[in-house]
Each structure stands twice: as structure tokens, then as C-alpha cells.
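Quick start: read one record
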Amino acid sequence: MITKQLKSAIEDIDALVALTKSDIEDIKEAHHDKLNNRLVEKDRLIGSFEHKKTVLNTELLKLTLAHEGKSIDQILSEEEANTLTQFKDKLSSLKAVNKEYAKFVATISEFYNSLIDKMFTLEGNGYEKNTLRPATLFMVSA
């Protein structure tokens, strides 16, 4: 049961890594419409992974409670331990890819925010909400 759940979760992680790498390439090429098309699939995979992780946590907790005083390495079979190690490695690679993706997203976000700040002048003071001054909305000079 544990090995099956781990392998299934690893498949989800592999798919998420592949989609995120595609997202990074599309950001580099400014194909932002393709990013939106993958959001539904990524959300589905994340939900699937979270469910599998919850099931895994429950199963591992049952095992540790049934074998009090033993470490998880002593409880799991060799195949289960190897699959768990692979699972941890895949999680690390997903984290690395997501970190790279976040850098691109933050850079693009900062670019658009600075562009908006340059295009529109905001007025506000203190704790009040900033609002656009009507005169700054695209004045055209002929």
C-alpha cells in the first residue's frame, strides 16, 4: 500500500516538474497564454498529490504506532524505504524547479508593477487607499 501510494505521488511530482519547466520556458519566450492553459492541470495534480500525501501520512502514522520504539527505517521494507528515498529526492527537485519558477514570476511581476507605476500617478496619503488621479489616465498631446 505504501509503495503504491509513494509511486503514484512520485508520478504527480514528475508531472508537476515537467509542467513547471514548460512554464519557465514559456515565460522566457513570453508565451503567457500557454501558462494559463496549464493552470487547470497543475491544480488537479496538486490536489491529487495532497490527497496521496495525506493517505501516506496516515499509513506511516499507523505503522509507527503499531511498532512503538522503532524508527521508520526499521519498520519499512527495503522496497518501501527505497521508494520513500526516491519520493524525498523528487520533492527536492520539485522545490528547486518551483524556486526557479518563482524567480521568473517575481521578476515579471515587478516589471509590470513598475510599468503601471510609471504609466499612472497614484495619490494617497497615510493609511488611505491609493487612487488614480483622473488627469493621469492616458493624456494625449497632439
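The mean pLDDT is 85.
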